[in-house]
Each structure stands twice: as C-alpha cells, then as structure tokens.
Amino acid sequence: AEGYDFQAIQDRWLPVWDELKPFEVDTAGAAAQSGERPKKYVLDMFPYPSGDLHMGHAEAFCFGDVLARYWRGQGYDVLHPIGWDSFGLPAENAAIKRGVDPREWTYANIAQQKASFRIYAPSFDWSRVLHTSDPEYYRWNQWLFLKMYEKGLAYRKASWVNWDPVDQTVLANEQVLADGTSERSGAVVVKKKLTQWYFRITDYADRLLDDLDALEGQWPAKVLNMQRNWIGRSRGAEVEFEIEGREQKVPVFTTRPDTLHGATFMVVAPDSDLAAELAEGASEEARAAFRDYLAATQKQTEIERQSADREKTGVFLDHFAVNPVNGERIPVWASDYVLADYGHGAIMAVPAHDQRDLDFALKFELPVRVVVDVRDADGAPLPDPAESGVATAGEGVLVNSGELDGLPKTEAIARAVEVLEERGTGRAATTYRLRDWLISRQRYWGTPIPILHHENGEMRPVDADALPVELPASEGLDLKPKGASPLGAATEWATVVDPETGDTWTRDPDTMDTFVDSSWYYLRFLSSNDATQAFDPAAVNAWGPIDQYAGGVEHAILHLLYSRFITKVLHDLGYLEFDEPFTALLNQGMVLQDGAKMSKSKGNLVEFASELKAHGADALRVTLAFAGPPEDDIDWADVSVQGSAKFLARAWRIADDVQGAGAPRGASFAEGDAGLRRATHRLLADAPGLVEAYKFNVVVARLMEQVNVTRKAIDSGAGVADAAVRESAEAIAVILSLFAPYAAEDMWAKLGYEPSVALVEWPKADESLLVEDEVTMVVQVDGKVRDRLTLPASVSEADAEAAARASAAVQRAIGDRQIVNVIVRVPKIVSIATKP
Ligand code: ANZ
C-alpha cells in the first residue's frame, strides 16, 4: 500500500464532503423542533474578514469544531453555523488608504476565508451562511433598533463622548484602553460633546449582574468577574444637600452614609451641568478660574482622573452647601477626581475616612473630622488622619456623630439610611459603573440608523415595511473621518419626501456600532434565508440558547454583555423563551511565537495559509489541540507540526494494515485480545469526560497511546488479524475524527465503511472490560518484606508509596527510625530504607 499522504487524502475527501454536505441540519423541520433527538447548538464567534484566516482563527475554530463533532458522535443533532461580522472600520480604512470600495474589499476577503475554511474543514452547516453587511441581514438590525425605539430602549442625548481624533469617531468606554488610548487607532482619546444614540442597557444592570450566578462553572471565572466588575454595582445611599442660593437640592451618592457628620466639604465634577450652573452664579474671579480648570479637565482621560496617586487639583465654586444632619455650612469645590457620569456627579467629602478626600483636604486646608474610631489589631487607635495623611476606612465605632455615636460601622450605615428616610433627606440607593450603550458611529460602513429628522426637530422611525434602509454606494462619498457621518453628504439618499404631506425629511446619517450586528446574529442562523422575519421564534426556541460558545477572551466584556442584554430584551418582547444566550463558554488562549504575540511588524507571523499548505489541515488541528489546555496560550516555537504528522501517519497505517490482512468488517470483537480490548474500552470510557472538560490535549495523548499499543499488538502480540485490532482501529478513527477529519475519514474507508465517520455514533465502552486487574505489591523495610498489599495494576507511584506508608505492619517495622530513602517500582515493590 502507498504511504500516508495528507494532500492525496484531502483531495480525495473534499469533493465527497462537498457533495454529501454532512453537517446541514433541518432546523425548521418538525422533528428537529419537537426535541425528539437531543440538540446542541455549538457556535464559534464569527470572524471579521480582515484578510485571510490567521493562526488565531485556526485555533479557535479547531476547538469549537472538536466540540461540535464530539456532540454529533454522542447522538445529538448539532447546529454549527458560520457567518461573517463584515461591517466595521478596517474595510473603510482600507478603502481610504487604497481607494478600493469597502464592499469589494470585504467580500473579497470573505471569499478567501471561505476557501480556506473549506480546506481546514470545520464541520459547518454551509447552508445558513450570513454576512452582517448584507442588506438581508442589516435590515433586521434596523428592525431591532425600531423595536428598541418603540420600547424607549433607544434614545438620543447630547453628552460628552470619547472621541478618537485619529479615526475621527466616537468610542464606547469599553473601547478605551486603560492608558486612555483607543483600542483601534492607539490615539489618545479626548472628550467631545455630541448628540448620539444610546441603548438603555443600564435598565438591565441588575439582571445582567444577577444572572451571571447561574453561569458559574459554565463560563470561565475570569470572564464572570470581568462582567461583574464592568457592571459594578455599588450599594449605598443618596443624600440630598441644600445649596445656599439654589432652589433644587443636590443629591450625592455615598457608600458611607454613616460618615455624614464627617462631611466637611462637597466636591462636584467640573464637567457636570451642576458645576457649570454653580460657576454661573459665582464671582467673576471664581468663574474664570473654573473655566480654566474645566478646560484642563477635558484633556484628562477618565483613567487619569481616577488614579489615586495623582496630586489633587480643584477650584472653589464660591458656594456653600448645608449638611442635612447637622446644619453645618460646607464649601463646594470642583475637582476632576469626581466623575460627571458616576452616581450624581457630586460627592460629600469625608476626608477622615476617604483617602482621595483627605488628599484634597490637606492640599486645600479644609477641615478633617474623625467620625469612626478605627483601631489596629491590638486595639490601639489609629493615628489622626489629619496628622498621618492616611484616611481610616476600616471597621470601628461611630464618634462625633450625634445619635449614631457608639454604633459599629455596619449598623451605623443602616441607621443613617433610616434617619435620612425619616427626614426625607435621603434614601437607600444603588449605583452602577455600567453606562448606557452608545451605538451611533459617524462612519460609512455600517447599518444606517432608520430614523428620519424634520427641520423642526421632530423625529420619526422609518416604516417597518420600508426597511432595509440600504447604504448608498460609496462612490463619490468622502469616507475620510471628519466627525460627521459621510452619509450626510449623500444628499439624494438622505432626502425623503413624505408622499402624503409633501414634507421633506432627512435620514439620520449615523451608522450603528458593529456590536449591534453581533449581539443577535446567533438567532439569525436559524433562518438566515428568511426574508420575512429576523428569526423564526419557534426554531430559535427549539435550538437556543447556544449550548457551547467558543471564542477569544478579548470579547469577555463587550460582545458577551451586549448579546446578553439584547437576548433579555427580545425575551421581554416575547420572542425568546430563554434570556441568556450562551450556556457554556470556552475562551481559547492565543497563538504566540517565541513568547510574543504574532504580528507582521514584529516579523514573527506564522502564516495560516502557508502552514495549511505545508502540513495540511489535520496536522495543524492536531498540533493546536495537543499543544496544551485550550485556555492556555500556545507558543508556535514549542510545538511540532511534524510530530503531529508522524502520529497521523502511524494511526492511518493501522487502518491500512487492517484493510490488508485484518479481521473483516462485522467480525465479533468478543474473541479479540483481552489486553488490547481493555485499552480500547478504557479510551472509549474516558474520552467523553475529557472532551467535555475541554482536555483535548489529553484526548490526543490518549489516542497516541492507543495507536502505540495497537501497533504493538499487531507487530508482537495478537497480530493484525485479531478482531481487537480492528476494534481499536475503529475506535481510533471515530475519536480521531474530532481532530483530524481527513485522516479519520480515510481510515474509516479503509475499514470498509461509507463516509462520513463524522456522523458515526461513538461505540459504547463495555463496562465488563473496564474492571481493573489487581496485583500484589511487596513492601520492604531495610530489605525485609513487611507487608503484601493488593492494588490495581495501574496504580501510580504516588499511590503505591502512600499505600506502603499507610500499612500498619510497615509502620511498626519503621518504629521511631527515620526514613532516608524510598524506592518505588510500580506495581511490584516499594522499598524503604531507614536510619536511627
Ligand atoms: C462619602 C464617603 C465616605 C465615601 C467614605 C467613601 C468613603 P464605589 O464603591 O466605587 O461606588 N463617589 C461617589 N460618586 C462619585 C463620583 N461621581 N466620582 C468620584 N467618586 C464618587 O464608590 C462610592 C464612593 O465614591 C462614594 O462614597 C463617594 O465617596 C465616591 F469614608 O461618599 B463616598
């Protein structure tokens, strides 16, 4: 027989699979919706068409595919679709740089990725492909927007936004990195006031937070924490302060209402409306100082403003507030450490117990009053914050606080809230870090917002039957970013005359954040080709939610949060029975090279296309799966694709040998070699648990072992004609098909079966073959046999030693002598040497 030749094998099976379409599922059919067969919806985060596929894609789609193929093998109907997240800036930037149409660029890249995927062969259902930049898709983004608008969940407001001066576009908070730069362009992000569209995700903050608990153990703990921190729920109180000379009271948010008696000044955010109003009524001098200070503040990033070790700055606003618990007059300042869009944009400053307030008080010589007696571990009072410069935030007993005196902190917090509520000057309150989702972008390559504006300021939604609002051709439009959407210049497109009234309306020129596109795409896969609705609720409820989602940790916050939000909205609108989209989540690590992220500029790029060409899909996939736990990063410098190819050749040769001289198809395995059968069935018994625990690397290692013992049985044991060899070869082909679909299919054919091995249900492990053999192990102490223990033949060194040490007879022999050496030879002997 000829040798293992990956190229020949790929060429043999690709056309067969093209013809067979083994992974198409009929999700609309009654059987598929009645739950007759169990279902699994397995989805990989869909790719962005920025060029050809890269190693990161290879990895992510390998792992998702292992799971999709696994569940098929367990007898499930598996939906495993693919689509493209094809709107967004890179297409536009390429268009600007190279003068190509964003559409052409996008669809050419998609075509290239499709061709590469075909060879890489993830088990996709190709009949339901979608691209978010198709009008047939984004029409339903517009439908979703209108639903949100109807429900009051989409609204417009003027506010300070993060502005990327290079890409000339608004960024969501999430797109601003910790150092204050744009995640896309790397530019330092500045603030700009604009009227923008928002989705009211803050209405869902509690549910988005509380429902994370049910995902515990199903999602990586790290992702759950990132989501929790992002939502950032903080419980405390809202306290109302009167400000002299101003009618409305000013609310502040505090987590420490117990410290109200220690509030010696108030601070408002310089960029808040309140600060502007107060400055308006201030002296000429204070007004000028405020103006300068505001200008300086607007150059700061949010991160800089929150940094604890920055020297405090601020200006007095020439106003006094009245502390509601003791009637004290306290000065009102503006300082950039108070953020305009958190809580109420104003705080009561308690310098004795809050470090930022203390730093500020010491800088501007404001009073510091201790109201909680905080002690150290020995019960000694901590030094006075005004002296030490260190605020005391810990547990303690209230002092200088009237009726709260003597109460421990926690009780005082509760009591203070009661007092505020009794007097009508405050109440229990909860604040979130989460902000509403800013969804409008001043860019071309996205979904047009389906709203019409009248000169008189009126707005109205585009009629549902007039959707989609299609993007005009890019030809003739200046796509260069300039702070206003290029669509505004498409006059013909933008002008709409109402046939009834003759009134002229103008289309909203902005496009949607592409995170809108990806927030619900998993629903569209159930009816990608349906021109009448966004998704079929019956099909979606039969197949949703996603049982297994897989993708990069870079989406740990935004994409997952937005999808969860939109799922809850669609649930509340009555479309979905479930209200969480992703039951289980796998985050793969990154593919690195020499410990560094790969990039063209670093010159350490491993090209997916050339690897695929050189080694074939199977060897690449096996290498990725075998490199380590899927959550870990893979360093391409440490892996051996050649090693994987060798393993595949060894596996394949077993089927080849069976085809030549092995037991025939259908032979009874019961007569086969017991040792090899035991190994085969142990593999069959262990593999499901390992796959479900994402231990793909261990499954590959076990396959390698199985190939070795089978080879041994052929060459020096039972011989190739033994039925156990065929049984093993069949099990190897079936399990190997998770990782190496081509080699497995070829093996399956050599074993006499029709394609495809991918649709074969896994053979069940025979329990009777799993009973462990037992052996007798001798334990010696200083050369004398002291005990004989009965242990499983497969006992580990550690377990053997532990059993030896636990033996009463052995312990007696050792007495109070000291153990100096232990030699373990599993499963036969443990030898212990001692000295006095
Ligand atoms: C008085 C006080 C006394 C506070 C004390 C803390 C300690 P988290 O936990 O993050 O929610 N704060 C409120 N609004 C703010 C804003 N817009 N910008 C900056 N700081 C703001 O923090 C809540 C605390 O942060 C609030 O409780 C308030 O300071 C401050 F011993 O009020 B505290």
From TrEMBL:
Membrane-traversing stretches: none
Subcellular localization: Cytoplasm
Domain Leucyl-tRNA synthetase editing: 228-420
Motif residue range(s): 'HIGH' region: 47-57
EC numbers on record: 6.1.1.4
Methionyl/Valyl/Leucyl/Isoleucyl-tRNA synthetase anticodon-binding domain sequence ranges: 676-795
Molecular function in Gene Ontology: aminoacyl-tRNA deacylase activity; ATP binding; leucine-tRNA ligase activity
Keyword Ligase (UniProt): yes
Pfam families: Anticodon_1 (PF08264), tRNA-synt_1 (PF00133), tRNA-synt_1_2 (PF13603)
Major subcellular location class: cytoplasm
Entries under InterPro entries matching the protein: aa-tRNA-synth_I_CS, aa-tRNA-synth_Ia, Leu-tRNA-ligase, Leu_tRNA-synth_edit, M/V/L/I-tRNA-synth_anticd-bd, Rossmann-like_a/b/a_fold, tRNAsynth_Ia_anticodon-bd, Val/Leu/Ile-tRNA-synth_edit
Binding site for ATP: K600
Coiled coil: none
PANTHER family: LEUCINE--TRNA LIGASE, MITOCHONDRIAL (PTHR43740:SF2), LEUCYL-TRNA SYNTHETASE (PTHR43740)
NCBIfam families with a match to the protein in the record: leuS_bact
Similarity field: Belongs to the class-I aminoacyl-tRNA synthetase family.
Name this polypeptide is given: Leucine--tRNA ligase
Record organism: Leucobacter chromiiresistens
Gene this protein is translated from: leuS
